């Protein structure tokens, strides 16, 4: 077990060359531990007999960004919680610490309203730089809590951030052949609209539960919705809470921002279905949908195909009450316009 506290000035800053940071394992050795440590599995835990502790990352210098979405994967016993805090730097000035709210799998998870200072504000799961400006660094702190010293410590296995950069990374993936991504993954199908009372507002947990079942973890859809609910915003679509739930067992999960469809194709080539966020004004924006999605919608990308010379994306769209109507094929050109570039990655292995 690692029991040290690393805060040497030579390692207080690291540089992020791309838009996504994923910290696991050895990455946590660089930073400051207070009442916390790493266990043999390189997960952040509380020290023995300590009820509150933290790990603070080095300062992460980045390219210019205007938004940040953070993710974490924690295993929490009853009466234990984690809380992720983020601060950003703009024009050489640091913001306050912004909280993603205290989180536990079985507790009443809640985002925190009205978080704002002169640099940024928190919009549920997205930290937004004010006045159209850009930040160029951030730092995170993960807090761990338990009510009593004899309760198992929370175990934090992943922290991730996805940045909306001023310069997009439109790098394409070099596939040996189109056959690598032009295929279909057999993802189980689930409908959201046949769920009583909450059916119209649980596209996110329904999509997550489909991917979890694909990976061998089976939650009832209503139970999945209960375990992602944000009691602060009273929604089921908090991106960070959804990936925290998906990563609370044997998988890794985080929110990512892809600037190009080639990155989704790369995931499909590795047999990793992804949950994608789309938004449309009218049905015709994405032909074949049952309804428009003006407030945003989550669905599962399970493959790609070509018909009559045009590319199509194959999805499980949960916005139906008929399981025979879930698998859809949407024109890729329309999907790219509707896609908000946000995805959930849910995987047993982390792909760089």
TrEMBL record:
Pfam families from the UniProt entry: Peptidase_C39_2
Peptidase C39-like domain mapped to chain residues: 186-319
Highest taxon listed in the record's lineage: Bacteria
The protein, known as: Peptidase_C39 like family protein
Organism: Paramaledivibacter caminithermalis (strain DSM 15212 / CIP 107654 / DViRD3)
């Amino acid at each position: 077990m690692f029991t040290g506290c690393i805060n040497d000035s030579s390692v207080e800053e690291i540089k992020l060359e791309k838009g996504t940071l994923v910290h696991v394992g050895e990455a946590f050795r660089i930073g400051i531990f207070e009442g916390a440590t790493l266990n043999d599995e390189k997960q952040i835990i509380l020290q023995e007999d300590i009820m509150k502790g933290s790990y603070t990352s080095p300062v992460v210098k980045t390219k210019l960004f205007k938004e940040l979405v953070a993710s974490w994967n924690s295993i929490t016993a009853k009466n234990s919680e984690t809380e992720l805090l983020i601060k950003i730097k703009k024009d050489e000035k640091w913001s306050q610490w912004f909280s993603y709210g205290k989180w536990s799998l079985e507790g009443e998870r809640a985002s925190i309203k009205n978080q704002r200072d002169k640099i940024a504000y928190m919009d549920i799961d997205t930290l937004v730089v004010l006045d159209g400006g850009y930040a160029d660094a951030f730092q995170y702190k993960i807090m761990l809590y338990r009510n009593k010293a004899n309760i198992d410590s929370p175990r934090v296995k992943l922290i991730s951030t996805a940045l909306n950069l001023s310069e997009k990374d439109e790098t394409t993936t070099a596939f040996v052949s189109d056959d690598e991504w032009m295929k279909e993954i057999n993802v189980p199908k689930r409908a959201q609209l046949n769920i009583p009372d909450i059916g119209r507002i649980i596209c996110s947990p329904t999509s997550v539960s489909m991917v979890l079942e694909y990976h061998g973890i089976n939650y009832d859809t209503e139970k999945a919705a209960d375990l992602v609910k944000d009691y602060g915003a009273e929604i089921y679509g908090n991106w960070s809470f959804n990936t925290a739930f998906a990563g609370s067992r044997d998988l890794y999960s985080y929110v990512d921002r892809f600037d190009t469809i080639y990155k989704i194709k790369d995931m499909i080539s590795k047999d990793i279905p992804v949950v994608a966020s789309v938004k449309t004004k009218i049905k015709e924006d994405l032909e074949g949908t049952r309804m428009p999605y003006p407030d945003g919608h989550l669905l599962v990308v399970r493959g790609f195909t070509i018909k009559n010379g045009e590319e199509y994306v194959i999805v499980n769209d949960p916005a139906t009450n008929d399981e025979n109507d879930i698998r859809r094929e949407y024109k890729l050109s329309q999907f790219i316009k509707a896609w908000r570039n946000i995805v959930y990655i849910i995987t047993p292995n982390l792909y760089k």
